[in-house]
């Protein structure tokens, strides 16, 4: 977890307990947990929106390619009909 081992984690928790105090530590831990959960959700939403825009771009490119192929087919049919 971020290159933090067990001894470092214990030191961080002891310092937090001393600085914040035992009464407020659970409340702060809950708030931190909620903040991390919200951040993860926002990151996932952003990831989804980027994927959706990529899909829209790919669909547009595919549509353009199909329309160009149809135009080429129509032009070839017209040229064949003239002969």
Describe the protein.
This protein is mostly helical and 83 residues long. The mean pLDDT is 82. It has one domain (21-82). Helices cover 88% and strands 0% of the residues.
Précis, in short:
By secondary structure, the chain is an all-alpha fold. It is built from two helices and no strands. The protein has one domain (21-82).
Task: Give short descriptive properties of this protein.
2 helices; single chain; rod-shaped; 0% strand; mainly alpha; 83 residues
Task: Give the SSE map.
Elements: H1 6-20, H2 25-82
Number of domain modules: 1
Q: Provide the structure class.
A: mainly alpha
Described by the principal axes of the CA atoms, the overall outline is: rod-shaped
Summarize the amount of helix as a percent range.
over 70%
């Amino acid at each position: 977890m971020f290159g933090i081992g067990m001894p470092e984690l214990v030191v961080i928790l002891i310092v937090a307990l001393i600085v914040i105090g035992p009464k407020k530590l659970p409340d702060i831990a809950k708030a931190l947990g909620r903040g991390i959960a919200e951040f993860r959700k926002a990151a996932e939403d952003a990831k989804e929106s980027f994927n959706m825009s990529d899909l829209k771009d790919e669909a547009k490119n595919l549509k353009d390619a199909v329309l160009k192929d149809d135009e080429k087919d129509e032009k070839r049919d017209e040229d064949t009909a003239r002969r």
